[in-house]
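Please, structure for the following, as tokens.
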Amino acid sequence: MRMLVALPKEIEFASNAITCHGLSGTDSPEVICLTHLAKKWILIQDAFAYQVANPGKIRIQFEAFQNPSENIVTSSFKLATQTSTKYLLDVAADTLEINFFCEYPCASCDSRNKTKCLSCYGGADDYNMFFEYQCLRQCPFGLTNTTTNNCTECYSPCETCSI
């Protein structure tokens, strides 16, 4: 399977030497990425086994992008998956944006403080627990995760609890 990633207009290649690493859902951490500088796309080839129809969550790290000079939320990336013979399987072209003002792991933050999180990125293995303007991997001791990934207090006399 092939994956084509088109960059939003606000993102540029820092060089033509883009590197890609398969973090999860790929056959190997070594991922082949081809770039087209003028069209602003990256083609990922041979990262997924042909017989696996749905590899689940796919995480690929790209290196050597040039961040915008302004603190912005970009327009959406475009992501398309294809067979090795270029038959289109799926396209995602909405809500794949990056917030360049907030510091990771904040998905949104206070406009005067880029580390004061107002929301967190989702994902089971990320910093997605929100507590006191921070995004944490897990709730602090004595707190539990709600169904909306907010940390809330356990009721006395319990030291730990679950919702």
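The chain has a mean pLDDT of 80. The chain has two domains: 2-92, 106-153.
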